[in-house]
Specification:
The chain is 2% helix and 43% strand. The chain is mostly beta strands and 183 residues long. The chain has 2 domains: 87 residues, Thrombin, subunit H, CATH 2.40.10; 93 residues. Strand 10 and strand 11 form a beta hairpin. The protein is globular and about 45 Å long. The two termini are 32 Å apart.
Length: 183
């Protein structure tokens, strides 16, 4: 789930492969349904102006949506090239592809987040690590990271605080919330 930057819409990804857009000011009435993914929805991000939505699914597709038309933008990768994204929960995106070694598939990275100042991108993985990369970390860039170890197994969620002075991570099996202070 993710609210639009203006707070007037709520996008909800479902396990039935749809994204439902709710009208917050109209008692959360359904404004539209976005259909096109091949699997359950993993992440969705609003553009800062609320005109676009991008989404990932369990089949590792990256799709783009025009909210005004409530339709998929098949040229979204090109049409949104200069767009600033309010959030960065889609692990399959131009900024994050360097986090995936060529020998690995997309399943070992569970969560991503870009710092509020746009300088860093972090991910939580299946090995209990919180990895910090420079943003962007494009594919085939040989992206280098700093890894923080603390969770016993997979990291389910990572996020920066408002001024990027802390990273918060949530572990899966260890049920632990950790905070990492910027040095």
């Amino acid at each position: 789930m993710n609210y639009s930057p203006c707070g007037k819409m709520l996008a909800v990804g479902t396990h039935t492969q749809d994204i439902i857009i709710y009208d917050v000011d109209n008692n959360y009435a359904v404004k539209g349904k976005l259909k096109g993914h091949s699997s359950y929805i993993l992440g969705l991000d609003w553009s800062i102006d609320g005109k676009y939505l991008r989404s990932n699914c369990g089949a590792y597709e990256l799709l783009f949506w025009e909210i005004e038309k409530m339709a998929q933008d098949k040229n979204g990768m090109t049409n949104t090239k200069g767009v600033t994204w309010e959030t960065s929960t889609c692990k399959i995106s131009y900024n994050a592809l360097g986090m995936f070694p060529t020998s690995e598939d997309f399943t070992h990275v569970n969560t991503v987040c870009i710092s509020n100042n746009g300088q860093y991108i972090i991910c939580g993985d299946d090995w209990g690590l919180v990895n910090i990369y420079n943003n962007p970390a494009p594919k085939d860039s040989g992206a280098f990271c700093v890894s923080l170890r603390g969770h016993s197994e997979h990291v389910m969620r990572v996020i920066f605080n408002k001024d990027d002075s802390y990273i918060f991570s949530v572990g899966g099996y260890d049920h632990t919330l950790m905070q990492w202070k910027k040095a």
